[in-house]
From TrEMBL:
InterPro entries: ABC_transp_permease (IPR001851), LivM-like (IPR043428). Residues 347-390 are annotated as: Disordered. The chain crosses the membrane at residues 39-57, 64-83, 95-114, 121-139, 173-192, 221-243, 255-271, 278-296, 308-332. It is a multi-pass membrane protein. This is Branched-chain amino acid ABC transporter permease. It holds the Pfam family BPD_transp_2. The keyword NADP does not apply. The keyword Chloroplast does not apply. GO terms for cellular component: plasma membrane. Keywords: Cell membrane, Membrane, Transmembrane, Transmembrane helix.
């Protein structure tokens, strides 16, 4: 007897993978063709830079559970390191300068993470806040960092990679998109690896993680280094691709809180939460500004409109967190789950036993035995109502004799 080979099922792509592929096609293929300079400069490029910064902070705070208030400091370290590398090493390619700037930021994050070996919670947050103040002081006081420019202002070099120029708004958008895509893939590989599971174990229960063999100190320092590396490259994109001319005030404490809000609103412990939160923080204020100018522009000055915009934005943030404390990512998951449940329910309701001419009494269905002859039906308990017998309108061949079922119309 010859055994036939079994059919191997073809791998099916999930809806999330298909959606991500469609999003990349739109981002790389459609947006560069139809987008305007305003769209690239005012919306998409800052969105990508802040989303990358939120991604880096989410690796530290969302996955490892280590709170940091110094994200803007690591952005500044990356931006000024890339500026100095490009200035003092003229032959250094731009990707190499950006990579080395990320490593410099990772070293700074490694030093800032040393207190994490002894501190937790808000005490650790205060120590990272000290890093923020120290970096701001260094940028304003040490002239060598900014090439002795007044007020620490630096001007970004030209974005040229392998002879290709990315200096126009569309090119800066594509440059930022490529960097964000690459680092997001690397971050995803990290969180699904054993290192990512170790980060989550430390976040959930540090003592239990230590008991099962997780090297807590080394994993914490690794989290600070990787997070600072990603945030440092985000700082390079913020300075080189978005602002082009940046001063130390562009990396102040407000920027750190902005990145923290992006992570909280988007969703802690999720990679997509950084992008959802960045969209909420970057895109929504622009939409509110346009809407406010259209509705209230004639009767109010710009200061009043800006105040109204902030009030509405704050109210929306509070509403989102009240509705779903886990952030926009969890809210999106709930919406997708509700759509899937309704779709399954719709499919079940359309597949009834009577569809396609099926009989309610198929011949192959097990026969329910009736009561024995001469047997007396038990009396129902007091207070219960005896249900009438079920009568099925079936053809005579579908109900064999002796089945105990009453078929046909009653007499």
């Amino acid at each position: 007897m010859i055994a036939l080979p079994r059919a191997v099922p073809r791998p099916r792509l999930s809806a999330g993978a298909l959606g991500l592929a469609a999003l990349l096609v739109v981002a790389y293929g459609i947006v560069p063709r139809v987008g305007t300079s305003y769209l690239f400069e005012a919306l998409l490029t800052p969105f990508l830079a802040l989303a990358l910064a939120g991604l880096g902070l989410n690796l530290l705070t969302g996955y490892a559970g280590l709170l940091s208030l110094g994200s803007a400091a690591f952005m500044a370290v990356g931006a000024y390191a890339a500026f100095n590398l490009s200035l003092r090493l003229p032959g250094l390619p731009l990707p190499a300068a950006i990579l080395l700037a990320g490593l410099v930021s990772a070293l700074a994050g490694l030093a800032a993470g040393l207190p994490a070996l002894r501190l937790r919670g808000f005490y650790l947050a205060v120590s990272t806040l000290a890093v923020q103040f120290f970096v701001a002081w260094a940028l304003n006081r040490i002239g060598w960092i900014s090439n002795d420019s007044p007020s620490g202002i630096i001007t970004a070099p030209r974005l040229v990679v392998a002879g290709l120029s990315f200096d126009d708004p569309r090119g800066r958008y594509l440059f930022s998109l490529s960097a964000v895509t690459l680092l997001t893939v690397l971050a995803w590989r990290l969180v699904i690896a054993p290192t990512g599971r170790n980060l989550v174990a430390i976040r959930d229960n540090e003592t239990a993680a230590r008991l099962v063999g997780v090297k807590v100190a080394r994993t914490k320092l690794l989290a600070f280094a990787v997070s600072s590396f990603v945030i440092g490259i985000a700082g390079v994109l913020w300075a080189f691709a978005y602002l082009r001319t940046v001063e130390p005030a562009g990396f102040n404490l407000d920027r750190s809180f902005q990145i923290l809000f992006i992570v909280i609103i988007g969703g802690l412990g999720t990679l997509r939460g950084a992008f959802l939160g960045a969209g909420f923080i970057v895109v929504l204020p622009l939409l509110l500004a346009r809407l406010g100018a259209a509705l209230l522009g004639d009767g109010f000055d710009s200061g009043t409109l800006e105040m109204v915009q902030r009030i509405v934005l704050g109210a929306l943030i509070v509403a989102v967190l009240i509705r779903e404390p886990a952030g926009l990512a969890a809210l999106l998951d709930r919406a997708v789950a509700a759509v899937r449940r309704s779709d399954r329910l719709r499919r079940r309701t359309t597949r009834t036993p009577f569809a396609d001419g099926q009989s309610a009494c198929p011949a192959q269905r097990p026969v329910i035995p009736g009561p024995r002859s001469g047997a007396r039906d038990p009396e129902p308990p007091t207070g219960q109502v005896t249900a009438p017998p079920v009568v099925l309108d079936c053809p005579p061949p579908a109900c064999p004799s002796g089945s105990g079922l009453a078929c046909g119309a009653p007499d």
